[in-house]
Amino acid sequence: MIPLLQRPSPSMRTSMPGGGAGRVLIGLLLVLWFTLPMVPVALWAVAGRWHAPAILPQTYSWEGWSAAASSGLFPALLASALLGAGVAVLATPLGFLAAVSIRRLPRRYARPVEGILLAPLAIPPFALVMGMNVVLLRAHVPAAGGVLLLLVVTALPYTVFMFRSALAGYDDRFEEAARSLGASKAQSIRHVRLPLLTAATSRAAFLAFLVGWGDYIVTLIVGGGQLRTLPMTLASAASATGNEQLTAVLSLTVVLPPLALLTALLLTRRHGRIR
To answer: Could you give the dihedral angle defined by the CA atoms of residues 231, 256, 204 and 223, in that order, rounded to the nearest 10 degrees?
Structure first.
């Protein structure tokens, strides 16, 4: 019989050190830590006139939102979403395959391969982009394709790490039990392995999406201005003076969609759809 990990009962969870109240307090502190810096940004996004020493804006206005819409907000939003989705679609399965391959390698070979896959984290992004940009130009790779390719390479360390962590506690006997009951290899992968790795897959895909969504350096250098994403639009607004409201609106637009996506993933997992 395959031993299964049982979830702790409510009485066990409350008896654990730093039980429910402690977790709630830590969660509230983390929420405050991340949300408090966004309060001035949110106020600037609706501020019509805000001069010192006033704590709150003297007047409110939605002009920044209309200015953002006229400055190409929606095409940039679509470009960032497509770029992030493309990076997630490519980097997530590649990270899974790399993690599975490393797991099957002997230890003396697994370490060097893992080090190579994690190398992009140690290389300064500007140096990586400048070196690869020359190769991409000589190979006549389109700007959008070059940006996507480099961002997939940048996202691989995150997806490999997530799957490596998940596979470290993965028991192959689950699949062996399914095979012994008559399931084919494809069926055991589909009905056993993939459901057990759903949480790791969602986390890896989310991290890969963030790499594409929030990138600026690769898009600027390799894209050559042909790919207008949200970070590019935000940088243009922030480089000019007197654009505080527009910059705040674009900043919120960059931050809020990933937060909404993360909240949706957490709620989905909480309701038992992702385990």
So the answer is: -10
Q: Report pLDDT for 87.
A: 96
Query: Would the pLDDT of 9 be above 70?
Result: no
Q: What is the CATH number of the domain that holds 182?
A: 1.10.3720.10
Tokens (6 digits) for 45: 């996004």
Would residue 107 count as lying in a domain?
yes
Residue 152 has a CB neighbour count (10 Å cut-off) of 22
- Which value, to the nearest 10 degrees, does the dihedral of the CA atoms of residues 244, 250, 252, 255 take? -130
How many structural domains does the chain have? 1
Cβ contact 140:79 at 8 Å:
no
pLDDT of res. 2: 40
SS3 56: coil
Q: Look up the pTM and report it.
A: 0.82
Listed residue (198, 171, 197, 175) closest to 187, CA to CA = 175
Which residue from 191, 202, 190 is spatially nearest to 166, judged by alpha carbons?
A: 202
Q: 146: domain range?
A: 75-228
